[in-house]
Specification:
The chain is of the alpha/beta class. It has a six-stranded mixed β-sheet, with no helix packed on it. The protein is built from two helices and six strands; from the N terminus they run αββββαββ. A hairpin with a 2-residue loop joins β3 and β4 (84-90). The chain has a domain at 31-124: Nucleoside phosphorylase domain (Rossmann fold).
Length: 143
């Protein structure tokens, strides 16, 4: 029981797996990301431009699913973009690869708790905006 008399809930298995993944990732670098980016095949090469970054293959991160999609490197890249520390998922996993919804969203859960940072998803599928080219980088933005 806590000081208030309420029983403290045990962390879920999913939370514990996310915590283990986050600890593993952050042990590989002293940098602490402020923004997380998820890049697919269209923008994955952007992560290659980050000089001096820590690069961690998903297969070495505890509990991380492995990307099998063509053009998805399956790598976490932690470095700086315009002096902002970022964690970049270079590739992601999909339902069509045979993963469950829980497995598909797991990599975004490793940013929970004390490791939390702002999250963005990237795409290069074009835009309905006339001033944007299909080659422009595009990231979601909270309203």
């Amino acid at each position: 029981m806590s000081a208030s008399g309420a029983t403290k809930a045990k962390p879920s298995q999913e939370f514990l797996r996310a915590e283990a993944a986050a600890k593993f990732i952050l042990a590989k670098t002293k940098m602490r990301p402020r923004i997380g980016l998820v890049l697919g095949s269209g923008l994955g090469a952007f992560a290659n431009e980050i000089a001096g970054a820590a690069r961690i293959d998903y297969k070495s991160i505890p509990h991380f699913p492995r990307s099998t999609a063509i053009g998805h490197a399956g790598r976490m890249v932690i470095g700086k973009v315009a002096d902002v520390p970022v964690a970049i998922m270079q590739g992601r996993v999909h339902f069509y690869e045979g993963y469950s919804p829980r497995e598909v969203i797991f990599p975004t859960h490793q940013r929970r708790g004390r490791y939390q940072y702002e999250f963005r998803a990237g795409m290069s599928g074009g835009s309905a905006r006339s001033h944007q080219s299909s080659r422009d980088k595009s990231f979601d933005r909270p309203e």
